[in-house]
Structures are given as structure tokens and as C-alpha cells.
Specification:
Strand order of the largest sheet: 1-2-3-5-4
Shape: globular
Largest sheet: 5 strands, mixed
Strand content: 35-45%
Helix content: 10-25%
Distance between the termini: 35 Å
Number of helices: 2
Number of strands: 5
Order of helices and strands: EEHEHEE
Length: about 90
């Protein structure tokens, strides 16, 4: 079996952190990303997390997360010009 994508996260002090999340373009739009993110959120809840945090980059479809209940709480401009890191959170309770 070959790994082609996935999610890496951690929990600490009641907070779920999504550190890395990647699916190759051929698997995007299939519902798999929603399922994987939901599994991570469920695992966070099982570990007692009340909320989650992640950051994405402006060209990496932050709308994927907002459509799934995540909200933007900060944005920092970075390089290349026109790019920013977008920080997001979601209540899990």
C-alpha cells in the first residue's frame, strides 16, 4: 500500500492542532478530505478537546475549511507577494 496523502495533528491542553493535511488533486472533491478532517475532529473530541486550530495558506483553498465550520481569526501577509497565512479555529464541543 502506498501513502499518497493524509493528515498529521496533535492535541495539547484541550486543543486539537491540525499541523499538515494533504490530498493529491486526483482525490480532491471526492469527499475524502471532509471524511479525514471529520475523523481528526472526532479524535480531538475523544481526547477532550474543546476546539481546534490550524493555519493554511491563501492559495490553498481556505474555503475548504470554512465550509466545514472553521472560522478565520487571523491573517499574516508573507511571501511571495499576494500570499498570506490564514489562521483558523473551530469549536469542537
Amino acid at each position: 500500500m502506498k501513502t499518497v496523502g493524509g493528515l498529521l495533528g496533535r492535541t495539547s491542553l484541550g486543543l486539537l492542532f491540525i499541523d499538515l493535511f494533504f490530498l493529491p488533486p486526483v482525490l480532491r472533491g471526492s469527499g475524502l478530505g471532509t471524511k479525514i478532517l471529520g475523523m481528526a475532529e472526532d479524535e480531538g473530541r475523544a481526547r477532550g478537546c474543546r476546539s481546534g486550530a490550524l493555519y493554511t495558506i491563501s492559495f490553498m483553498t481556505p474555503s475548504f475549511y470554512t465550509k466545514r465550520g472553521w472560522r478565520i481569526f487571523g491573517e499574516i501577509v508573507c511571501d511571495p507577494p499576494g500570499t498570506s497565512r490564514i489562521f483558523m479555529t473551530k469549536e469542537l464541543a
